Amino acid sequence: MKHESVETNAGLLIVLTLAVISVGGLVEIVPLFYIDDTVEEVDGVRPYTPLEQRGRDIYIREGCYACHSQMVRPFRDEMLRYGNYSLAAESQYDYPFQWGSKRTGPDLARVGGKYSNEWQVQHLIDPQSLVPESIMPGYPWLAETPLDMSDLEDRMIALKRVGVPYSLTEEEYERNVEKYGEEHARMFDINRAEENLIEQAQAENFDGNSATITEMDAIVAYMQVLGTMVDFSEYDDGHFAEFR
User: What residue intervals traverse the membrane (predicted)?
Assistant: First the structure.
């Protein structure tokens, strides 16, 4: 059959298109019925602390996701540049997750710890001062705007309802102690959310200004944790292939 015959016959083109889509869909869907889980088994992945979560809220509010994906694809060039490809497990507490294919700037899935807090603050205030060729706009108001904590508990309760294991009861708290350890379990306690946020912000002083807790503290705290939860040196090459 000549390709021209397909292009000039609308009915045949529709039938063949549906056939290709059906085969492609079956190839993608059928294997899911034969695997136990699509989320990899890894240690270290945890929910965000109240400060990190508020930073994530601000990151989304400012539209950072429009230019930066958080998904390292399983290709050699991407892994050489960014590190191990992204795992579904790393985004299991992200609502919504930041995977995608649009990159005006670099992928940020593993930006945590790559630069200092000072670098991140300066880059957000004036990107061109550090990367002259950057087309990223500055966000200087983040360093000047006090962080709103008035609805912190409500935000965490909403996330709890969709599956993030923040705790409200003693029983939930004890489960988190068993799974994440005492230090992290305390950070996930909704009843002490504001206290925990202030404690982390003052201890680590992300924006370099200890006088107040700003939106800059929160967004830098969020970016500094990205990609740092899983220690890939603990796993053999190909360990995660069975989940793909």
Answer: 12-34
